[in-house]
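Ticket 4471: requesting a sanity check on a complex prediction with PBG. Repro inputs:
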Amino acid sequence: MTGFPVERPRRLRRTPALRRQVVETRLDPAMFVLPVFVVSGTRIRNEIESMPGNCQLSVDELIPIAKEAESLGVGGMIFFGIPETKDEHGTSAWDPEGPVPRAIAAVKEHAPGLVAWADVCMCEYTSHGHCGVLNGDIVDNDATLPLLAKAALTYATAGADVIAPSDMMDGRVRAIRDTLDDSGFEDIAICSYSAKYSSAFYGPFRDAADSAPAFGDRRTHQMDPPNVREARREVELDVLEGADMVMVKPAGPYLDVIREVRAMVDLPVAAYQVSGEFSMVKAAAERGWIDGDRVMMESLTGIVRAGADIVLTYFAIDAARALREGR
Ligand code: PBG
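Returned structure tokens:
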């Protein structure tokens, strides 16, 4: 074999059937986890302007969506809560009657085929919008750990299958693991947002979850975008602390990090295609500048090709439908 003209890679691209047979990366709806925003009350659907097609939903409105996701084979749902009251310590994060525990219980009842993921962070629950309790202007790491553990325990009690801490405090995986184990939840898994970067791509989410910090930013706990060796260290520590899965977030701009993490651990690797990644596709598609459906599938394929086993994505339902229809 001496290359062209004997070798012609185009031969295997000649027909759709041939291309389908030699495809190297296949998506499966079971990989997808749909993020949802839950509010108290009933019959509430507040559209989120910066995330077309996504709403803040009361639990009753969430159920049909969960059923639809389940029927399309979507793997799971992750819940974010918008509480009725916020305070300095984020105490509503562990209210068993809060929107997230109620959503978890309802989805477990009505769509038991979905894996129920609970995001754990204080930023939706604190009056100042920071990810933990403050000491002056700084989020106090060690004082925040027991609060995260309390929230995690509340979600596990409600029926969560996976606890996913996204706060980026040091030591939180161990703190949550210990609390779950002490309370008889030793079988409930932890997926740590291990390599979570301080990203401008979270912009639309902070509108959706009403969780923007009142002052300052998250750079003293979330990772600095240029760093990848540091991501390895974060993953290593979380595995030592007992994480069952690890996550990279955002996904699309951090494919090299996904690849790196995939190569270093045997645990499942999740990647979060965040709000800004989603909204950019939607906005460009609305203007007719790109084919939204194709960019959706291509962006997800890239994340999986990089090494993600699980993708948290606002496209979960649309992408599952596209797969079912063979698009
Ligand atoms: C923190 C959290 C955030 C996201 C998920 N969990 C926001 C942040 O760190 O500010 C962002 C997700 C997205 O942008 O889609 N609770």
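Notes from triage: The pocket of PBG is lined by residues 119, 121, 123, 166, 202, 205-206, 218, 274-275 (CB under 6 Å). Leaving this open until the requester confirms.
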